[in-house]
Design goal:
Blueprint: E1 2-3, H1 5-12, H2 16-21, E2 29-31, H3 32-43, H4 48-60, E3 63-65, H5 69-85, H6 91-103, E4 107-108, E5 122-123
Parallel strand pairs: 1-4, 2-3, 4-5
Length: about 120
């Protein structure tokens, strides 16, 4: 299962609802976009050292999803679909959705705007 940035943050903060939602996941995956967004948040945090250490350890236990040529086609398809339906979502989330489609993995997220993406599975928590 792919973790969105809000799920990654909740996991780091040990929110039980995230652990429950992930209890049946066979593997955890992090898009590079999510790692970047989270590192940005860490840079602004008062607990920077703790979160940086936690993230470095957590990433080692996850599958990191990189953006490649195949991802770009999914990205373009999703952007066109969303534009035509009049339901745009933030660009970083389009990349997450593209990686989800490419790898056939659901995304754990609280962001309901993902529900506008066709052929996409959001797991709420």
């Amino acid at each position: 299962m792919i973790l969105d940035t809000n799920a990654l943050s909740a996991y780091a903060d040990e929110q039980m609802s995230v652990f429950e939602a992930l209890s049946t996941a066979k593997e955890l995956a992090l898009p590079v976009v999510v790692i970047g967004e989270y590192r940005y948040g860490i840079a602004l945090s008062r607990r920077r050292d703790w979160y940086q250490k936690w993230l470095d350890e957590f990433v080692r236990d996850c599958r990191v999803l990189n953006i490649d040529e195949a991802t770009t086609q999914h990205y373009a398809d999703i952007r066109v679909e969303l534009k035509r339906s009049g339901t745009p979502i933030p660009v970083h989330d389009v990349w997450i959705a593209a990686l989800s489609r490419q790898h056939g993995l659901p995304v754990l997220s609280r962001d309901r705007h993902f529900d506008s993406v066709l052929r996409f599975s959001r797991v709420p928590w």
